[in-house]
Amino acid sequence: MANVQAEVLVTRLRSRWHRLMDWFNARLSPLKPGPRAWAGAMVGILVAGTFACLADAGDIRFGFGRGADLALDVVIHVLGVIVCAGIFVAATWIVRLVPLRVIGSLGGTMAAFLLFQLTWHGFDPRIWIVALLIPLEAIFGLALGTLIGGEIVDSSRGKKIAVFTTLLLGVGVNVAVLAWLLGDGSNKHLVAAAPRQTEVAPVAAPNPAERGSFTVKTLTYGSGADQRRTEFGDTVAFQTPKVDASGLLPELKGFRRAARKWYWDFDVTQFPLNGHVWYPEGAGPFPLVMVVHGNHVMEEFSDSGYAYLCEHLASRGFISVSVDENFLNDTWSGDLEGKELPARAWMLLEHLKQWRGWNAEVGNPLCGKVDLDKIALVGHSRGGEAVAIAAAFNRLSCYPDNALVRGDFGFSIKSIVAIAPSSGFYKPSGEPLKIANVDYLVIQGAHDADVATFLGTRQYHHVMFENDEPHFKCALYIDRANHGQFNTIWGVRDWSGPVHALQNVKPLIAGDDQRQIALVYIDAFLEASLHKHRAYLGMFRDPRAAAKWLPAGVRYVAQYNDSSFTPICDFEEDIDAMTATLVGATVEARGVKEWREVKIPLRFKEENQDNKAVFLKWDERSVDSHDENVEYEITLPESTVQPLGVSAGSKLRFSFAQGEDSEHAVNFTIQLECRSGVAVKCPSDAIGPVIRTQISKIPVIERLLLKPFEVVLCTYELPLNELAKSEPRWNASDLRKITFQFDSSQAGAVYLDDVGFATESP
């Protein structure tokens, strides 16, 4: 009975629908354009299009003369109209053959897919690549449905051939696409390092990656009432107060605020101070190292991904804390898009307040164990930018963008480590963030698919040394390292969602190897910075000094500087390419095709490192035409050589980078000439070749956004006492000219920066 009633209802609805359509057709029929009207519309379109073509042609020059240029432009536009019209006609013909329900399902599926992806991940051109699989599957399903439905039995021979051909192609395409998506990608783009001609002595110190002698203990502290994190519940060793971060994060409001409060049971006015601690057994006091994660899926907690690092540091005499800031991370209700970075930084300083209190509290198990004169901050990704912001906030009396948020910190933060940091999300008063008088290490993987360019170089160049204390900084670039493997939770895939299958992971080194590099460099940095074991400085100047501790077959590029450095040319002083930073010094380039001072570019097109260098380019024609060698010469003024403190114990320090995509190294030598005319040459060395990078399986799409390589400066040092041994008459204190010669390279392009002198150690 129910079925009969349903059929009657459907019949009535169809009848009323048809009557409604008939009524509309009857009313609209007199208004329906006839053949001549449609012809007029076509003429109108062509006239308007021709006018548009002529208007556009007014600004186009091909170089054949005004009349010929105009005619050629019109021909190009007309051909374009014909081709595009043909495409639209073909598409319309196909649509008329396809039932409405198929068009609706195809369009609806693609629209829903793209809508969801735009909602969760924002505009991402990689999404369209995945979306193209949907119409391909529609064609395959068409052939499969024809076969299964029995429509092929009485079909013509041509239709049978078409159906079976489509089936075979569909199976082949599906298998190929699936294999491609599940595959690791390609490493054909990798370029081997050129052998260095100069030698470097290995670091004369213990392996920083070996476990230390201290027994490690652990504890947790936190709110004591965290509904999502049991380790920060009622079992915490120390209960901490909640803090109000609303003054630093006014953007967290409305639906995003409500959704996060539902998940965590707290909002921006009650952020918890949660931390997992690894500490060495003993009386201390020990330096304090705080490690903070970056942006990741909020529901997959990131802080435990640094247990390997914190436990290792504790065994070597550092109190290590992995800080929980997961409530500031990305989630289904929306990413905070870097606006939360001031809150991330401020939270670290609020953690340090707790440690200052525990260290001074008589009867507290941590009383007197913390050396608050030796504090280091380590951050990854957005955490890497946050630790630099925290170092800046630490010295301020209030938050720069809201003075109502007071600062009462003043901690002795000595060391900053940034692992693949973001950079530029936060600019106080619109200016780049500058920090002073801290030791700074930034580490970046060349195959980082999240922070896909070396943004950390910006902060590196904005670390200043302004007091008399010894400081140093290093920027380390690691080939075949990605973003996520520095954290054991994040893993090998830097991309989320369906596009993670498009990431090229074949070139990547193993996760254990990548974390081994982190252990070696971070521990050695903290040993040199906080424990003053200066023997480790050699590996920051040249990674070859630590080769015995690092995974084999991995390329490293290191830029280094310290507070003992006195610049001759850092190219920041003005826009005159012939002047130098040192007053009275002059420069000259010979045999080059291009010579200019520029900001060094990043892989992201139109982005730069906020750092100027001199760019030199030459080829065989430029050398032949000028009949001279390719050289860059710096002449020092006589009156300033002595104030520079140049002596046989000094080092000439400079940084080079290859300036174009080449698999061949650029060779150079350096000539140093005294005022007496005595000159010596150092052995030749190599710049590059570049570290080529391919982070996706679709390099054609990748090249629309990213260049195939990063310009990464490599620091070179030349001990002047070695030159004095080869020529006794040569006197370092009487130095007049420094000449970089590129005679052995027929063609090339280089960036040169930070030429100056340094003492043996900072």
Q: What profile does the largest beta sheet have?
A: 10 strands, mixed
Q: Give the helix level as a range of percent.
A: 25-40%
| Integer average pLDDT | 85
Number of strands: 26
User: What separation lies between the terminal Cα atoms?
Assistant: 95 Å
Radius of gyration: 33 Å
Q: Give the CATH class of the largest domain.
A: Alpha Beta
Tally of discrete structural domains:
3
How does this model look, in words?
The chain is α/β, with parallel strands linked by helices. It folds into 3 domains: 37-182, no CATH class; 216-238 and 245-492 and 508-562, Rossmann fold (3-Layer(aba) Sandwich), CATH 3.40.50; 566-758, Jelly Rolls (Sandwich). The longest helix has 32 residues, at 66-97. It starts with a helix and ends with a strand.
Short structural description:
The protein is of the alpha/beta class and 762 residues long. 33% of the residues lie in helices and 21% in strands.
SSE diagram, text form:
Blueprint: H1 2-28, H2 35-57, H3 66-97, H4 100-121, H5 125-131, H6 133-148, H7 157-182, E1 216-222, E2 238-239, H8 254-264, E3 274-280, E4 286-292, H9 307-315, E5 319-324, H10 341-360, E6 370-380, H11 382-393, E7 398-399, E8 402-406, E9 413-419, E10 435-436, E11 439-445, H12 456-461, E12 463-464, E13 472-478, H13 511-529, H14 537-541, E14 556-562, E15 566-569, E16 586-590, E17 594-601, E18 608-618, H15 620-626, E19 631-635, E20 651-658, E21 666-674, E22 679-681, E23 685-687, H16 699-702, E24 714-719, H17 720-726, E25 735-741, E26 748-758
Parallel strand pairs: 1-2, 4-5, 4-6, 6-9, 9-11, 10-12, 11-13
Antiparallel strand pairs: 1-3, 3-5, 7-8, 13-14, 15-26, 16-19, 17-18, 18-26, 19-25, 20-24, 20-26, 21-22, 21-23, 21-25
Helix pairs in contact: 2-3, 6-7, 9-13, 10-11
